[in-house]
Amino acid sequence: MNYQIELRHFIYFLAVAEELHFRKAAEKLFISQPGLSTQIKQMEEILETQLFIRDKKKVQLTPAGKYLKGEVEFILNHLDQIKKQLKQIGKGDLGEIRIGFLGSAMQNVVPNLLLKLKEKYPLIHTSLEELSNRAQINAIMHDRLDLGFVRLSRVAKGLEIKPIYEDTFSLVIPADHPLEASSFKNIKQVKDEAFILFSQDYSPLYYDTVLSICEDGGFTPRVSHKSVHAQTIFKLVENKLGIAIVPTALQYGFQMDVKFIELKRIKQRAVLSMVWKQDHRNPALQNCLDLLLHI
């Protein structure tokens, strides 16, 4: 057989893998359904591997198809980034850095980085996206992000992680709550309160750390609400629907009727880390990493 795998095969395959429906995939690609079926069959013959299980009711990916889907997503994302980098370099720019972050990183680390980049590398472009820890890791692995700011203790093989900022935790309570910083002794004083936490899916390390703070105080917190946004958590506290424990830096930038009591005497700290792919090929990212290591 003289056929060879071409880029169009990957594009056609990914459309079917995402839709799991040949007619919908064909409409998405603006080609005929028989033509698409022929291309997929040809691809399977070239690879000597079945990629889809087809019957009259549904289309499913085989194990080989599932593996290929992840690899093709990476390849196409990387090609798209290459095109963007080439276009910017051709215009005299130095490239682009795609940055993911948790909300708390925007209080100091990310703004400081952007200012440093603008000062030293004014032609480097940046794009920002607020994402959960898990979403950032997935995007970096699939080449949709170059750099992330996460609260994780470890990451998957192939990624690098380095602590970049350590913060204390603070108790967040309604402004008219009887407890004051001067009268605060330990976290056990709020053991009967309802707690509002960042979702465990959003930040597992934060969630577990807050539980450990309470457990060190001799109780398990009664969790009434969870959220992925600090503003939502503060609004719930303001409306006396519970109290919260957050990284201290989050108290800045919000104008709400709550007060913060810094938990200076506990051992736990809110550690923010930067994460990136070990074998990245973005020269602009290396400049960014060098800056971060010296901020």
Automatic annotation (TrEMBL):
SUPFAM superfamilies according to UniProt: Periplasmic binding protein-like II, Winged helix' DNA-binding domain
Protein's UniProt name: LysR family transcriptional regulator
Residue ranges constituting the HTH lysR-type domain according to the UniProt record: 5-62
PROSITE patterns: HTH_LYSR
Organism this protein belongs to: Flagellimonas spongiicola
A Pfam family it matches: HTH_1
Keywords of this entry: DNA-binding, Transcription, Transcription regulation
Keyword Transcription regulation in annotation: yes
Family in the record: Belongs to the LysR transcriptional regulatory family.
